[in-house]
Structures are given as C-alpha cells and as structure tokens.
Design brief:
The complex is a heterodimer. Chain A is mostly helical. Chain A contains eleven helices and no strands. Helices cover about 80% and strands about 0% of the residues of chain A. The radius of gyration of chain A is 21 Å and the shape is globular. By secondary structure, chain B is an alpha/beta fold. In chain B, helix 7 links the parallel strand 7 and strand 8. Chain B is globular, with a radius of gyration of 17 Å. The relative contact order of chain B is 0.21. The chains are: A mainly alpha, B alpha/beta.
C-alpha cells in the first residue's frame, strides 16, 4: 500500500510540475551542465594534444587519464572539501557548500571521461584519413581538424558519457555542497535525504526523472556509438 | 608545362630490406607516366616519396617550375596530390568529400559549388552527390577520390593502383578519366599498376621498376 501510494503521489508531483521538484531538477541540470561544459572545454583540447603530439611519458599520461575515469566520487569530494574548507589552501574563496564547489567536483569527475574517451575516438580514426588530408594540401592544423571531425560521433558519445556520470553522482556533491534546500540541493542528494526522512514521494518523483534522463542519455549514447561504429566498419 | 620532377638515386628500406636502391627518374613534359612491376617491387613507395608523403633514406626528389627549383614543400603539396589505394574518404557526403580541397583553400560559395558539380559530372557521380561516401562501392570510392583530387586542379596527380581492387566497369571509367586528363593537357598523371597490359594501354611512358631501380 505504502509502495503504490508513494508512486501515485510521485507521479502527481511530476504531472503538476511541483515547484520544489522543478527547482531541484533545474539546479541539477545547471550544476551538471556547467561542469560538463567546463570538462569538455578542457578535455577536448587535451584529447587532441594527446592524439596529435608526441612527447615523453605520453603513454603514462594516457594511463593516468584512464585511471582517473574510475575516480571514486567520495574521494574527489573529500579532496575538494580539504582544499576549500576554511583551513584549506583555497579556503579564502569561501566556495564550500556552494553550487560552485559542486561544479568543481563534478568537473573533476567528468573531465577524465570526456578527455579519455575523446582521445580514444581520435585514435580510432583510420590513419589513411590523415594521409589523404595531407595529400590534398591540408596544413597540419587542418589535418587535425579533419581528424577531429571524423571522430565527431565518438567525441559526442564521450561528452554524453561524462554527462551520465555527473548527473547520477551523489558522493562528491553531498560532501562539498552540503545539501542546502533551495541552494545546493540537487536530485541525487535530495533522494538520499528524503529517503532517510521517509518522504518517499519526492524521492521517487526525482528518481523517476533521473531514470528518464539516464535513459535519454543512454539512448543518445547508443545512437552516436552506432553511427561511430558504422563509420569505422565501412 | 608547369611542374617537372627529378628523383635522383633514391634509396629506401624497411626493417633492413632494401625496397628502392639508387632509383632515379624524371619527367619534364605533361603526360601519363605509369610505374609498373611485380607486387612488392616498391612502386607505391616510390610514388609516396615523389608525392612527398615519405622521405627517402638517401637521394632527393626535386620539383622545378620553368627551370627554377621549388623548395617549399607546403607550396608543392598544394600543387599536386596523391590518391591512395584505400582512398581515405571522409564520413560525409560525396559532395563534402569532393569539395574538401576547396574548403581548406578558402574557396567557397558559387565557385566551390560549380567546381564540385563540374568534377562530379566529369567522373560520372553527380547522382551520388548527397550519398554518404562511405556507402559507395570500391570503384565509386576510387572515382570520388580522383574527383576530390582533381577539383583542386593539381599540376601533378599521383594515382596509387587506382584500379587494383575494382570491377571492369569502374576500371574502364577510371581509365577513360585518365585519358581525358591527357587530352585536357593540364595535369601530369603518375600512376602505379601491377598490370603491364594496363600500363601499355594508358601510358605515354612506361617505367618498369625491377630490383629497386627503374629499368
């Protein structure tokens, strides 16, 4: 009874576009979207640099980046907390328990995913493409742009994968955001809190939205990966 | 006549195996030059070295314009082009593939459209212009590769085994394209083929590569 009751109330909250619910969803999208944008702006140039340049210890840096893809969110949260806490080296910025702190944490989580998967996409482009562009008179910069363009589906898939990671993340933002109502309370942290309090309808409503977003992200990811594989197989 | 080429005593080896050994040749007149010889004799290697895509271990490739040496490789790379055996088409429409060389040269608008359409008509692929290039047959891909190369009006066109893995119909079309280029007289074609008969059929001059040298 409790189960079906909670579900019907959760759907009612979604259908009536409940103000609190919408506020939490919008803040989640804002925080994760900003983190993803920053991670992409930093990750794409790095992936291109790793893809096109030769330098000592390149293999080590790639391995390091791949390792960071599996960073435990709570460890990232702890690290950022120590940096931003009053006694920490960046304590003077007063960023702890703000959306900015949450964006920093999520950027750190998304960055290795975007950079590493984009690098893999760039490396997956047929080497003949590079030669073909060069023989047609492309400058080294134009050759690089051509390769990035060929890797576009893989790069979009990398960005989508990064978004999936940060949207579903709870550990890091709970530590650095503090779950303050109307300020730093996002979908995942609200679900944790409301479940703890026994308010299942809001938790369930947010869970349903989160699942829908996750489904959408994965459908998009699948579409882009299929396009990428179709290109690679032809 | 615009560009002429002189390759002098080219040596090239891979993992200690000498492919080219003191190979020299040159051209100074527009025409069709066909490098032939058995598989693995170094035809493609020599072609790639002449097209400045690879460096020789020893020897030199020089280009001349009206008797003056052209030193700048990036300038040269814009005046000639090589169509690789696997072509390397981009994951885009035939139209976008063919107009690539124009875009990277900053040519756009009506001029780009006209030149692309004209070259697609020349290779007989106007009806495929909106199709993704990666969905074409091997023969059609090779023709798109040639169109992509010709749209930039190269003075020297290198073709590496352009008919190696395609059907008779497309082979005939490509041979016809090469003959028409000769009639237009603007482009020197240097191609490789392992088919001696095809070499004799197309070439103004057949260059037989044996033992790492041109006989």
């Amino acid at each position: 009874m409790l189960f079906s009751d909670a579900f019907s109330k959760a759907f009612s909250l979604i259908l009536h576009l409940d103000r609190d619910l919408m506020g939490i969803i919008l803040l989640s999208l804002k925080v994760s979207g900003t983190a993803l944008a920053i991670a992409t702006l930093l990750g794409l140039p790095l992936s291109a640099f790793l893809g096109f340049r030769k330098f000592p210890l390149k293999g080590f840096f790639i391995s390091l980046l791949n390792t960071f893809m599996g960073l435990p969110p709570v460890v990232v949260g702890l690290f950022i907390y120590l940096l931003l806490s009053r006694s920490g080296p960046l304590g003077f910025m007063s960023l702890l328990y703000t959306p900015s702190a949450m964006i920093i944490a999520q950027t750190i989580l998304a960055f290795p995913i975007v950079a590493s998967l984009s690098h893999a996409a760039i490396m997956g482009v047929d080497p003949v493409i590079r030669q073909a562009a060069a023989t047609l008179g492309a400058t080294p910069f134009q050759v690089s742009l051509t390769i990035i363009n060929e890797a576009r589906y893989g790069i979009v898939a990398a960005v989508i994968a990064g978004f999936g990671r940060v949207m579903a993340e709870v550990g890091a933002i709970l530590i650095v955001g503090g779950n303050i109502a109307g300020y730093t309370r996002v979908m995942t942290t609200t679900i944790a809190l409301e479940t703890d309090k026994g308010n299942f309808e809001l938790a369930l409503a947010l869970g349903i939205i989160l699942l829908l977003i996750s489904l959408m992200v994965n459908v998009l990811l699948h579409i882009f990966q299929k396009k990428d594989m179709a290109g690679a197989n032809r | 006549m615009s560009l002429s080429l002189q390759a002098v005593k080219i040596d090239k080896s891979y993992n200690g195996n000498g492919v080219l050994q003191g190979c020299s040749w040159s051209f100074s007149e527009n025409g069709i030059y066909v490098l032939t010889g058995p598989n693995g004799c170094g035809k493609s290697t020599l072609l790639r070295i002449c097209a400045l895509l690879e460096r020789p271990d020893r020897g030199a490739v020089s280009f001349f314009d009206k008797g003056q040496a052209v030193q700048n490789n990036s300038t040269l790379m814009r005046r000639m082009t090589l169509v690789l055996p696997s072509v390397g088409l981009f994951n885009a429409s035939v139209n976008r593939n063919v107009s690539y060389g124009l875009r990277i040269r900053g040519i756009s608008g009506k001029e780009a459209v006209d030149r692309t359409e004209s070259i697609l008509e020349f290779v007989g692929l106007t009806h495929k212009k909106d199709q993704n290039a990666l969905t074409l047959s091997s023969g059609e891909s090779q023709r798109v590769g040639i169109a992509r190369a010709l749209v930039i009006n190269p003075e020297v066109l290198f073709l590496d085994e352009p008919t190696a893995s395609i059907d008779e119909e497309n082979t005939a079309i490509i041979e016809n394209i090469i003959r028409q280029l000769k009639q237009h007289g603007r482009t020197t074609v240097i191609m490789t083929t392992h088919e001696r008969v095809q070499a004799e059929r197309l070439a103004d001059k057949v260059l037989l590569l044996e033992g790492g040298m041109i006989g």
